[in-house]
Amino acid sequence: MDATVALGGTGYVFWGGREGYAALINTDMKQEREQFARMLHMSVDYGRKIGFKGRFFIEPKPKEPSTHQYDFDAKLRRGSFDLEDLFHAHIGGMDTFARGLIIADALKQDKRLDQFVRQRYAGYRRGVGKAIMSDKTDLKALENTLPKKANRNGSADVRRCWKTF
Question: pLDDT tens, 31-72?
Fold first, then answer.
């Protein structure tokens, strides 16, 4: 956003792409929406503080996360319209789908998945994450938590930054 202001930009685009998860079943969508909304509010507030008078946009990403999560190795193995081949392919597909449902049910029943999701978002219930979600910090304050040491390219080492959270 600082670059947008410096270059006289009149619009700033938020790219809502989601990386880092392979399925929605292990995602707390309510938490994700709240985090995204909080980031948008913090960003708009910061933009106005630094003099950005332009418009903010959200680039829709209807295929995010990447479509690979839905493909399940859908490569055509053998192009055949033979009735027996089609029969075996459909039976194999039904068996695979049924096995997936059995595994998903087991994950739900033994609560391991719920525990994983709680642990995944635990950082937003304490420390910096809690400050972000409770409107007790802003982007400038968060920037001040970054390490001051720059890497050889002159930018802060992002890996070290994340370890502080």
Answer: 988 998 999 999 999 999 999 999 999 887 665 555 554 455
Amino acid 77 reads R
Kindly tell me the burial class for residue 153, based on how many C-beta atoms sit within 10 Å of its own C-beta (0-12, 13-18, 19 or more).
Answer: exposed
C-alpha to C-alpha distance for 105 and 97, rounded to whole angstroms? 12
Closest CA to 69 of 35, 130, 19: 19
Structure tokens at 115: 């525990």
Assigned token pair, 105? 């049910």
Q: How far is CA 75 from CA 71, 84, 111, in A?
A: 9, 19, 34
DSSP 13-80: EEE----S-S-GGG--HHHHHHHHHHHHHHHHHHHHHTT--SEEEEE--TT-S-THHHHSS-------
